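Hello,

Our lab assistant flagged a job as stuck in the queue for most of the afternoon. It eventually completed. Since we weren't sure the result was trustworthy after the delay, we are filing this so someone can double-check. Below is the sequence as submitted and the structure that was eventually returned. Let us know if re-running is recommended.
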Amino acid sequence: MRDELKPCPFCGGEAAVMYAVTDDGTKTISVVCQKCSIGIFRARTSENDWNAWEKPEKAIAAWNRREGGQDNGAD
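-- returned structure --
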């Protein structure tokens, strides 16, 4: 499954996709380990990106990528 998150590469904990809007209106998407809190972050600031913000595929693919270029098959 393309949107399935791999366990944390550091502690093996479960990861989750997190969304937020900062005080200045910057939209953010992160994938964060629920156990150790390590994560990756992607900010989106343009209005044109708002709809894409709801599609976390790039953040998930980045999270799932492992040393040596291994990933879960996502582009």
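-- support follow-up --
The delay was a queue issue, not a problem with the job. The result is valid. Residues 1-50 form one domain. Strands lie at 15-21, 27-33, 39-44.
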